[in-house]
Amino acid sequence: MTVLALENVTKAYPGGFTALDDVSLTVAAGDLIGIVGRSGSGKSTLLNIMGTLDAPTSGTVRVDGVEAGALPDRRLATLRGSRIGFVFQHFHLLDALSAADNVAIALLYTGVARRDRRPLAVAALERVGLGHRVGHRPQQLSGGEKQRVAIARALVHSPALVLADEPTGALDTATGEAVLDLLVELNRTERATIAVITHDQGIADRLPRRITLRDGRIVP
Amino acid sequence: MSPGDVLRLGLLGIRGRRARAALSALGIAIGVATMVVVTGIPAAGQRALADRLAALGTNLLRVQPVSAGDQPTLLPAESVAMVRRIGPVEQVSAVANTHRVVRRSDLIDPEDGSGITVLAARPGLLPAAGAAMSSGSFLTAVTARFPVAILGYEAAARLGYDRLPPPGAPAARVSIGNRWFSVGGIMAPAPLAPELDQAVLVGWDTARVLLGFDGHPTVLYVRAREDTLDDVRAILPATVFPQLPGLVQVSRPSDALAAKREGARTFGALLFALAGVSLLVGAVGVANTMVLSVLERRREIGLRRALGARRSHIRAQFLAESVLLSALGGGAGAAAGIVVTAGYTAWQQWPLVIPLGPVAGGVSGALAAGVLAGVYPAVRAARLTPTEALAAV
Ligand SMILES: Nc1ncnc2c1ncn2[C@@H]1O[C@H](COP(=O)(O)OP(=O)(O)OP(=O)(O)O)[C@@H](O)[C@H]1O
Ligand SMILES: [Mg+2]
């Protein structure tokens, strides 16, 4: 089953630089994809478009068969919030909130009742092995723990697709390995669909499917 | 997202930056506190005045001659008796200027009268003029025939008698026209007849005998049935002075007090407008804080957009923050205003009137200021695209 489809997607930034050039790809449920390529090759641009954070200049993006470009902001936000989970290189956790509350934000905008949010968030933290850090603030967590909180946040609402932009980029090698292991594990045991951008060839080699970008084009 | 969720989001931004939030709410608080105080204190004063007027009665008419040229007009000696014959008149009394000087001791320069007038008083003056004693007792039928003086409130202070000496101590005396008078009592302030405050009163007949007073009254105090007051007022001049009614002036002292109250009210309106201006300045402070808050939290905005927040959710979050900030300021300001008002009215011994209107007005003004201050930052926050916001450092 296809969860995401890009057709002839081109992205030209203001100023005329073409960061993506006629990219087409599909992601099927249960995929674990590594997106690799040199710096500036368009990986982040591609991921933003896959995640509907940015709109392509031309071409179409379908999430769960729904064409994202045709939706008003209201419905696009809801689609994004319910079907996609994001993991960022710099975690993007809110310092004022506990780990559980950070995870619960992912349930806030998709209509999950308040009383259900916390149990779901705690369960997601347990799935990433952080059941004992539920009440900790981000400042009280290690880098690897922070990224696992972020992964729990990306998974808590059972999205169709998890997009991770260099999730190991801010971590040391061993911690990065552990975070990647977690993603591989979640893909295998829970059949989570995941696309990961990485610079690390060693990491990429471990992933079942690879997309290589060069100058905004997919290398066949 | 429920309204509770929106409120919690608004609080989140405030909790994260308490000191800044407190400072920007302070502007609003000062505005609202000023509003409450500038309306609450005059309201309490008016209530106190109204209470006092009710106690003093509004049926008093004051009759006085106006001088024609440099010759003072003298009311006929029998004018008091004439007024008493008017049907609806309930009480009438009078005082007359004796043109004598009063001193604490006869060693003081006789020219130095300290601005105190010596008045001859008819019986029944106290109830008619709405005056009361603060110590001692007023002239009785007996003491009115002896050299006994009653001191008006301010006159007593100027003569150095704040209260009567205790029994056993040397009796209080004053010298009037080089004769000694013993002080029989001291009056409380007389709001309806303030001229009595600066006067020393002696008995009518005593004044004639000892001070050579001519028997012509200078002020008549007339109490009449409230419903006939206008009619009585109309016939008083001719009754008092049939030869020259045009030289008789009749006034109603309670009207003068009420007019003073009106004056206080217009002044209060001006202060209230000023408080409104300071509320507006407070709103600018909140707007400034909100613009900063949006700038600093672009990544949070991007994150929330990535997690499914609509533009309207982002707008609601920042608007809620702004309104909460102002509401906190408004609440604190209203509380502070009430405390100040309560303190001041307690000190003045006025009844405490919690100015509900201004409190409600001030708090809703603060809320409106919060909305006003939040709209622009909130719209700006919502306009950011998710990628722009996430890329912010
Ligand atoms: N907002 C933007 N405006 C203009 N050009 C941009 C913008 N964002 C990215 N680019 C350009 O588009 C190209 C692709 O950028 P992108 O961030 O997708 O690269 P990347 O593959 O993620 O690189 P890295 O591995 O360094 O993160 C780069 O040359 C970059 O300079
Ligand atoms: Mg990148």
Query: Into which percent range does the helicity of residues of chain A fall?
Result: 25-40%
Q: Count structural domains of chain A.
A: 1
Please name the fourth-level CATH homologous superfamily of chain A: P-loop containing nucleotide triphosphate hydrolases
Question: How much strand of chain B?
Answer: 5-15%
The largest interface is: A-B, 26 and 25 residues
Please tell me how large the radius of gyration of chain B is.
33 Å
Q: What's the count of strands of chain B?
A: 11
**What is the domain total for the residues of chain B?**
2
**Secondary structure tally, helices of chain A:** 7
Biggest sheet record of chain B: 11 strands, mixed
List the secondary-structure elements of chain B in sequence, H or E. HHEHEEEHEEHEEEHEHEHHHHH
CATH class descriptor of chain A? Alpha Beta
Oligomer: heterodimer
Let me know the average pLDDT of chain B: 86
User: Count the strands of chain A?
Assistant: 10
Radius of gyration of chain A: 17 Å
The set of bound ligands, ions and cofactors reads: adenosine-5'-triphosphate, magnesium ion
Elements of chain A, N to C (H/E):
EEEHEEHEHHHEHEHEE
Output the structural class of chain A: alpha/beta
How would you sum up this structure in a few lines?
The complex is a heterodimer of chains A (220) and B (393). Chain A is an alpha/beta fold and 220 residues long.
Can you give a write-up of this model?
The complex is a heterodimer of chains A (about 220) and B (about 400). Chain A has helices spanning about 45-50, 75-85, 100-110, 115-125, 145-155, 175-190, 200-205, and strands at about 1-10, 20-30, 30-35, 60-65, 65, 85, 160-165, 195, 210-215, 215-220. With about 220 residues, chain A is α/β, with parallel strands linked by helices. Chain A has a single domain (about 1-220), classed as Rossmann fold. Chain A contains 7 helices and 10 strands. A 6-stranded mixed beta sheet of chain A has the order 6-7-8-3-9-10. A 4-stranded antiparallel beta sheet of chain A has the order 2-1-4-5, covered by helices on one side. The model of chain A has no long low-confidence stretch (mean pLDDT about 95). The two termini of chain A are about 20 Å apart. Chain B is of the alpha+beta class and about 400 residues long. Helix content of chain B is about 55%, strand content about 15%. Chain B has 12 helices and 11 strands. The interface between A and B is medium-sized, with 26 and 25 residues. Bound molecules: adenosine-5'-triphosphate and magnesium ion. Magnesium ion binds near residues 43 and 44 of chain A. Chain A: This is Peptide ABC transporter ATP-binding protein. Chain A: It holds the Pfam family ABC_tran. Chain A: Keywords: ATP-binding, Nucleotide-binding, Transport.
